[in-house]
Sequence to fold (142 residues):
Amino acid sequence: MRYENRLLNPPIIRSIIMLGVYEVFMLLALQHIINFFVGQSPTIKNGWEEESMVSETIIFQIFFYFIICNLILSKTIKSYDFNFLSELWGKTGVIILILILIQGILVTYGDILINFTPLSFVKHVLAISVGFTPLLWGTIVK
Fold:
């Protein structure tokens, strides 16, 4: 039995480890440098600093997009298949779009329910652009 027929073959294990290391490194680095990008003076809201809540909301958004990228990259099991978007059309793509829409609504209007801080359009774009970098990294690792 060749290793290509197994679910966890060496290229898949390498991809999982490399993406995991990349995502942990990015999230830890972002926790230290995100306040530079937020650029707000801290104000107190419900006992929390507003700047801290904005940076934590952005980091959570990026973490959510990392999960979406892992879902997209896991659709292609073959180590030589670089076209991860070919498997995305259909039910999976609709589910991903619905998840992204719900996440955007929760971050924008969920400040009372979930204690998120609403993000501006620029901060949403920042979270999306950093959050989808595992697609590029996953392609490089393959």
User: Anything to note?
Assistant: The mean pLDDT is 77. The chain has five helices and two strands.
